[in-house]
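Milestone M4 deliverable, item 7.
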Amino acid sequence: MDENISNLSDLIRKVESNYHNPRVHGQGFIVTWHNKKNEVVNEGAILSDFFNKKYYEYFFVKSHTKPVVIKKLPFSWHEGASEIALDFYATFQLRVSDEVEAKQLVEILSMSGIPERGLLNLIDKHLHICMSNLYAKCTSMGEANLLDEFYQQALQRGESSRLNQAVTEQMTIELKGMDFNIGFTLRNAPERYADFNYQTQIQETGLEVSSECQLMLNNYQAYRKSEIKDIDGVIQHMKEGIDRAIRQHILGKSEMDLLSNFKTATSQSVSISDQVKQSVQAQANAIGYELNSFHTLPNIAPLRLLNGLMLTFDKDDGAFKTGMFGSRVRLNIRLEIKAQEGQFEKYRHLFASAENDNQIDLLGITQAQILDRIKILVHDICKEVMLNDQFNHYEALSQFEKVVRPTLTQEITTRLEEQHGLKADVKSLMAVESEDAMRLEELRGQKVQINFKRFFNTEQGGAEYTFNSAFEVLGLVKQTTDSWETFEKWDFGYCIDSPERQTKAMFKSESDVVCKKRAIESELHDIHEEIVRLLNASPLLIPSIDLWVNKREFNSKLQAELLNEVTTALKSSRGMDIFIERLEIKDEDLIKAQLGSRERKLESIAKTEQINIDHMLDGLEQQHGYKKTLADEIVAKQKDFLVELDDFDDLEESQALIRKEYPDTRFAQTSLMDMLPNSQKVQTNALEELTDVLSPSKEALEDKGNE
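Output delivered:
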């Protein structure tokens, strides 16, 4: 679209003759119009009607490959005899591509007047028709505002899509389908909305009054009559009206009168703020605007509390303990606080003088002091709720929205309303993980090796051996209530505001990430050093290599007590639960000593066993000799008795005599073999000898019997 074309002469203009020179006139067509017959004269008729040339007019219609744009043509619309009127600028485009369209355009425009004005006449005609229809539709809808049509979000200010479309459609019909499009914009269309803040200074009393004003245009005719040219003029007019209204209704009122009647009428029919607003509304109506919103408030802190104050808790306002866990959670709270009307006695303590709690100081009290006093109330509520045993540190951080926030919000709103007459609207309430909590998370789970040397007594006189172990931070101590405070006291430069960052060279000119990393490394090293110091100082670390190498069971119990002593001391000094692995000695010399000790122990065991075996064999051998001697004596006795026996009955007597003489020897009553020693070899030999003796004796007895 050619933005440089700005008047109708670029589309159609009157010329002196039908002579056409493209170099002079440009691309286009000469159209002859018979102003008496009101028709286009064709080329053949020109020759035959030579004498009628005095009635001819010649128009040059420019031909374009793309539509010609005509901008900022002025138009006006009036609604009958009323004062409702709108002024427009129109921008349209039209394209003529051949001679037929050129003749058609001249004919159509000539029927509406001279061709130069004919197009404007047609546009003005259809603008009036379409605007009247649009106005009728708006009025039929009751409270609909005609101005709404010209302040649509998708269009520029003062433009109506329905008007543009309606006029374009009507003009396209008039022009018999030519390529035509038009748009209207209100001339000097004012801003639909105005929003500003203003401070009024009452010089007589030194009182300042703050006002917030939001305006919306609703009467274009009144705006036109005001002769205000732009939005700056609108705002200036309203500021002057606010000054007059404030002086009229606030000047001369006492502070207590303002506090009692400003928001709510107690001693009069209309509150002071409403009186001011009504006066300002009249000023706005005079220039065609209405008040969307208007708030005014004298610079008296108690009055601002009636209107609402924003209270914010952030990380600098302290942290709250969570249950008996001992940890703390920092809260970010943003809430709007309003004093409830008619509840002055409940919140009057907020305005008490600093010197006397029973004296109210409405002018001396500041907004900051009021907010600080309300902060104390909110802080006490949060402290009590967060100390509830059902909460712990990890729930407060990981499940804050589900577990803590509903209870805390309910308690804050209920207690402030019931106990202090304050209406609280919690805008946001969330847990903010402190840097110390982040520090704890970084310390947890890191396994740090422990190495230290210790002198031990050995068989060779003594040696220094290296202990190896490792520790890991598990978290805060759960059994105590001050573990978080103890943990927070340690400062290694982790927090961004740590004094260590200003004094130690390793933190200077480094980013926060690097400083945090170095602080964690420094703290873990410090824990390592404290563990080594506690181990070396403990009397349970007995400097005897024998206890660590040979007394394994005793060593296990000893280490359990030793490590428990060290971890208990760390819980007290650092507030952290730290796991320490068993101590091991892995020196090469100690390994050799352990192997040598085991060899010597095995040799000692072998020698002891050999001595025991030798003693046992000697005993058996002595016992064997004694039994053999005894058996020989018994056999000899038996032989003697058998030789002297006269009959077999004397055998029992001899057997009784043998038992009496050898009472420690066991004999069976039914067998002679039981009288012999237990040794198998001795018994066998004795039996054989006894058989040899008894055999001839038996034969002799049998011979005597036969005789």
